[in-house]
## 1
Amino acid sequence: MERIVVKVMEYTYHYASPLGGITMAGDGESLIGLWFDGQKYFLEALSGAYEEKSLMIFDDTVRWLDLYFSGRVPDFTPRLSPRGSAFRRAVWGILRRIPYGERMTYGEIAARLSEKGGSPTSARAVGGAVGHNPISLIIPCHRVVGSDGGLTGYAGGVHRKKYLLAMEDFALGKI
């Protein structure tokens, strides 16, 4: 029997942000990745060959980023398709519900997962999933802080996390 291999093409596009270059990745219809250039786990969501190409999903993402970096809360979300285990996708789902300018701890996320009928989850396991978030900013992992409110690691760099949180606080009139 002949084996048929279907090759899914993936695409990238670059964006210049106030915090440095951002590379986004898509499958032609959905955003599968968004990273600060060179950050930890950079391009991890890509499965192989990819090409630079302008696509509608990237146009939508650029509009979202332009709004966000201008200090406004985007009123839409580009179509997202993050790739990961069921556990990681559950964590990323909680991240998506953290409101603009708000914070949540790793422990609070773990407690929410346990409340949903899952097995007890450690803050450390949540931290691993947060760290591997393939769609930075739109899935706002920068809003996750330590139990003492301190800025813990961020794959894009703690200096960027500090900037993003301060930008959101400023936009909301908190500072």
## 2
Amino acid sequence: MDRRAVRLLLVTVVVVLVLAPFASSFPDGLERVAEDLGFLSANHMSEINVAIMPDYEVPGLGGYTGTVLTGLFGVAVTFLLTVGLGKLFIQKK
């Protein structure tokens, strides 16, 4: 992995740490539509509505810490998927 990728990863982590307190508490677009149409709390959704970190929070942690950990988890997953797919699809010469 080159230095540019590491620098970009560090910048992303700093952005998560700084901007986490400003995360919106309003529902995202899909959740808002589900609320408006009245099927967000439907019983049949409870069987398939499983999340590792529901509502972008770490269970048991709230506030800044939970939001930061969720953001860092998202950054890590995205980074690992990107690197993995990059290695899979880009052939070395």
## 3
Amino acid sequence: MVMKNKINTIIFDLGGVLVDWNPKYVYRKVFNDDEEKMQWFLNTVCTSDWNMQQDEGRTIEEAVNLKIAEFPKYEEWIRLYYKEWHRMFSGSINENVTLFKKLKATNSYKIYALTNWSAEKWELALELFPFFNEFDGIVVSGQEKTRKPHLKIYKTLFNRYHIIPEKAIFIDDNKENIIAAKQLNLNGIHYTNYAQLLQRLEFYKIIF
């Protein structure tokens, strides 16, 4: 087991850890706050699994066309998904971004990001959240044509930035992604809230 004082690298997930993204922020308005109708649409039409294929490299045009062919009566709402994608953010998760900046300022760790994100929306993401440019490096799933929790994307991160997994910690709000990381000996923190994150970083003797 890695000695806790040997950690030299911290890897952040973005959505759900540093920024709050949820299609409900758009579709609540579309469905006039009818939670049942909104939930049906997001569970049946523009589903999370469908969106993840764009994170894995499928083009938005292809994805939208496939979904319209499957649900032609909902074309307008389907097209809205990526047309209004930028409105699916409530903003940064401020306490976690402050933590990220404190860790960066120590100069004690290399700080990277590993994110499931459509390649076509990445430039806009950098405009929306300029602090993304402050990482020492980022691996974006849509650009790599693979995504978490597939092991290939973790290996891409390790190889590109010369990361020793035993000396790194990965923070992600998706437990499945943490389980995959641990298969490669990457220390993982399944993020649930700020207090829990601080506690886990303290366990690893992270200084900030």
